[in-house]
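Running this now, will post back.
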Amino acid sequence: MTTAKTSILTTASGSPQVEPDADWIHRAVHGNYAERPFVEPPQEARIWSYTDRVSYRAGEAVALSVNTNAPRFAVSVIRDGADARTVFSESDLSGIWRETPDDCSVVGCAWPVSLTIETGADWPSGGYIVRTDAIVDGAVKDTHEHLFILTAHASADHGRRLLLIASTATWTAYNDWGGSNHYQGFCGPDGDRFSPILSVARPFAKGFVTLPSDAPRAVLADNPAMLSRPRYPHMEWAYANGYSKKYMSAGWASYDRHFVQWAEAEGYSVDVISQTDLHYHPEILEGYACVVMVGHCEYWSWKMRDAIDDYVDRGGKVARFAGNFLWQIRLEDTGTRQICYKHLAQAEDPLMQTGPRYLVTDAWETAVVGRPGAQTFGLNGSDGVYAGWSGCSPRGAKGFTIYRPEHWAFADTGLYYGDVLGSESRIFGYEVDGLAYEIRDGLPVPADP
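Update: finished.
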């Protein structure tokens, strides 16, 4: 494993207190410093784990695979939310070091099952953190956090509950544990390309499940000085502190958990499902009055879109507080393998030769796929994407300009034409959705095709 070692200290906003040189910044932004398996056990105690599936029904067993060079380890499971609570714990377990394939990002880690956790029939739906601690001489020397989704109870009164679709396909796309994801890696003929095939049978990278409160967001907290060079404070913070460079791009910690914690604190009842559930079991949407998506929700399969389209056609409501709807994926092996060739799709995706071509894993707007994202959500990532980070509109509004304050969504809010919603908290940014529009009589309207 390659671990960043640096003496550069960081402030709460992530900006280095000691100005790094250009080479350090280049490594932080462009380098691949993902956690990778060791050839030999390290001298210091380390621990990682993963579950055999992305999501479960209450009452089903969770198979947990653990890899550690510590003699003992402990496991706890915490239902995350407004009031986090531990639902399972076990300690004094024997640690075993496992060999890991170099291409584990692609084929999975293949570690044997270390522990089976029986979920309770009364456990509520939500995100469950699996915390594993490496124990040496009675002290915790290392900790890893994984997460699984517990889906809704079939007998629940769904009509009185919100259903959050966790962006698990995007988590998989960005998870760089093992060295490769859909952005960067050790694949291809020269061993320097991203992987179009990813396994979920591997740990989540550090920062995907929980984060310290001072971890920088992707959206810039402060406007950069004029003539300053573009910077990525969150990647610099990740490099300096041993976190995944993609922690702010995707994951439970950066997006989904904030909505669950807020909604439950406000009195909403929230169930959670994975995108894998949506793909294989679209009937899971039945009975819910409103389905919610939040944060960075970039990767979808054809069947996932079918499920949402059918749900809306039957009268269901969708609240999408998310951005960058862009890539089609395929799921294989009951959802344990994710495929997305992206910009290489038309040259390398096997379906270009065998068909059906509409399932080629390219952008939704491409002619070969031919299913624009706006047909489902009204917007798409092709007309949006970057805003409010690094050199991409770094001093932009970082909020949503109100043009039609008479809309029912703004009733009794006191908002006026021209107000910028969320500018102070910087809710608009990183990768967003959009559409082609023009201004007529002071109001934006969709542009003619």
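Confidence is low (pLDDT under 50) at residues 1-14. More later if anyone needs it.
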